[in-house]
Amino acid sequence: xxxxxxxxxxxYPPVSYNINGEQFTAQCAVDGQAFDCLQAxxxxxxxxxxxxxxxxxxxxxERLCGITTDVSKTYSERVKRVIIQLNTIGGLSIPYFxxxxxxIGYTIQIKEFSPLKNDLPNAGDIPIQNSPTERLIFxxxxxxINGDDNIIYFRAGQSLAGDRLxxxxxxxxxxxxxxxxxxxxxxxxxxx
Length: 192
Hints:
- With 192 residues, the protein is of the alpha+beta class.
- It contains seven helices and five strands; from the N terminus they run αααααβαβββαβ.
């Protein structure tokens, strides 16, 4: 029995309608199911107010934020990406990036290098061979304290020529920084 079926039956005046009649009961059942669907739809739309509870309508949040829907990612990864995009009002300062990373659950440290102070990254950290010193002022390191460092080892038969012997990283935080960092800068990641 529909939740609204009995309510609809009692809305009609009992003198004018036989509320126990077969056709009247059938009509109330059909109308009650329509109101049940309407109620469920209204509750689903109410849940879309926040990306976390939007369920099947998360793709609409991604569309509004300019994010390509990637169904190969988990629901929580997709929600984090939407929240990142919503929080990106603007800014290029270190505290801005720290707050943004913290809003999605990451603890990070950012280090800017300065060739003027003879503060350069280690030679093994990044490809700085043959890089002019002027370019090194646009380089910074993001140290991810609590990231999901997925370690992928080179394996015979599975890896191809040119693949790294060990590859690691957290795609959520790395994509986030690649999208938001100034275009003229080089950002690399370290994991603890």
